[in-house]
Amino acid sequence: MPSTVRERLKLDPGDIPIYAIGDIHGRLDLLQKAEQAIIDDAATIPGRKLIITLGDYIDRGPSSAQVISHLMAPPPENFDRICLTGNHETTMLDYLDGLISFSDWMRMGSDALLRSYGLDPDQLPRIFPTAAKLDGFIRQSIPKPHVDFLRSLPIFVDTPNVLFVHAGIDPMLSIDAQSDDDLVFIRHRFFESRLPLPKVIVHGHTPNDEPEVLPKRLNLDTAAYHSGKLTVAKLWKGRVHLFQT
């Protein structure tokens, strides 16, 4: 089964405020603070609001499993929530599907993910002498509802004026022609191209000390797992407002 999530959502939100959250990487504490800040900000706005999380919920930080459980639960009252996939989610599924090795997966900071499920990534290879036994044990140990949730995540949300995606796009291709790999992994071809972008691209994936705010690109990845700064962008009525934990 291919692990890359291929669903691509098209949405016309009208006048609904959208709150986009950057890369979380196992920081449940920051996610909860960000959601409370969103709730407080939206308290005087009537009707439904939308939260879009930009992927990379797992690895590096201490609470990957707990972040997944939180995102699987209902969103705050009067909010809808769309969780996009990131490259860390697709890589985890690649490992579970037998497409990459345990050592390749661990290079993603996935030792922290295993610990969040109560597993010891240092001891496991000593306990299970073959890769097949090790992989089989890990597959059995990660809850199936969590895996099913990660498989279900769409890869972007395309609105009339803004595209929400994990990594970015190839500016040489139309949005409909983008590859799944580019949508979750692209960097230099996206950043360095001089071609005009088709609309505002709101993304994460490439960490910076502060959010990058450009006329057609907004990068919300502020390396929350070690900086303690999880960045949120509120997009409403043609304006962008940024705030952080």
Automatic annotation (TrEMBL):
Domain annotation Calcineurin-like phosphoesterase: ranges: 16-215
GO process annotations (BP): RNA decapping
InterPro entries: Ap4A_hydrolase, Calcineurin-like_PHP, Metallo-depent_PP-like, Ser/Thr-sp_prot-phosphatase
GO MF, one annotated term: phosphatase activity
GO cellular component: cytoplasm
PANTHER family recorded: METALLOPHOSPHOESTERASE, ZINC-DEPENDENT ENDOPOLYPHOSPHATASE
Protein name stated in the entry: Metallophosphoesterase
Species for this entry: Rhizobium grahamii CCGE 502
